[in-house]
Design a protein that fits this description.
Strand content of chain A: 25-35%
CATH superfamily of chain B: Molybdopterin biosynthesis MoaE subunit
Distance between the termini of chain A: 37 Å
Structural class of chain B: alpha+beta
Oligomer: heterodimer
Distance between the termini of chain B: 39 Å
Radius of gyration of chain B: 16 Å
Number of domains of chain B: 1
Largest sheet of chain B: 5 strands, antiparallel
Radius of gyration of chain A: 12 Å
Largest sheet of chain A: 5 strands, mixed
Structural class of chain A: alpha+beta
CATH class of chain B: Alpha Beta
Strand order of the largest sheet of chain A: 2-1-5-3-4
Largest interface: A-B, 21 and 30 residues
Order of helices and strands of chain A: EHEHEEE
């Protein structure tokens, strides 16, 4: 299936785009997606943390992704 | 009443505090985060906040709900965060909490700003004379 990853902050600088279309196996887990992204963009592995959000919620590593999910890649937040 | 917002316009602190005022409350505690001129010895020229807006608003509403669960007596919860480019001294965030008494107003205000910094998807990009940094991105 294809998902479009929304990318923010330093992760957008590393990937070079604000959105990243990705072909991934159906039911890929959040953990597998993060491992895939770190393989594609090794600089992501150097960040203090890296999270996936699905439909505006922080996703758990074992959560499965579905075709119409809004998926985002979140580097360490620094608001306030 | 709960009011959470993001704005790309200069933050009107007085207007934010007025949103928190109510005759039901004997206390309004507020936190105002402003732009520092120096970070780790480097002179900051300006600063840019980027937000994942739909998620940031969702998480801010959740934080306000958590504060109300912990302190059910809260009369008003107001959280407004800036986005876009800010100059030194400008307000980046205002948290204001109204409550019958001060102890829970202080506690809820601190809970809201501390948790905001941990979970709300907003990113600070600092600009210096000789470069830029995404704050806290690396260990």
């Amino acid at each position: 299936m294809t998902i479009t990853l929304a990318v923010f902050g330093i992760a957008r600088d590393i990937i070079g785009a604000a959105t990243l279309p990705l072909d991934i196996p159906a039911e890929e887990s959040v953990d597998e997606l993060l491992a895939r992204l770190r393989r594609l963009y090794p600089a992501l592995a150097e960040l203090r943390s890296l999270a996936i959000a699905v439909n505006s919620e922080y996703a758990h590593p074992a959560d499965r992704l579905h075709p119409h999910d809004e998926v985002a890649l979140l580097p360490p937040v620094s608001g306030g | 009443m709960t009011y959470v917002a993001l704005t790309d316009q200069p933050l009107d602190v007085a207007a934010a505090l007025r949103r928190a005022e109510t005759p039901e409350a004997g206390a309004v505690a507020a936190f105002i985060g402003t732009i520092r001129a120096h970070t780790a010895g480097r002179a900051v020229t300006r600063l840019h906040y980027e937000a994942y807006e739909t998620m940031a608003l969702h998480q801010l509403r959740r934080l306000a709900a958590q504060a109300r669960e912990r302190w059910p007596m809260l009369a008003r919860v107001v959280v407004i965060h800036r986005t876009g480019t800010l100059e030194i001294g400008e307000a980046a965030v205002v948290v204001a909490v109204a409550s019958p008494h001060r102890a829970e107003a202080f506690a809820a205000c601190q809970f809201l700003i501390d948790t905001l910094k941990e979970v709300v998807p907003i990113w600070k990009h600092e600009h210096y004379a000789d470069g830029t940094t995404w704050v806290a991105a690396h260990p």
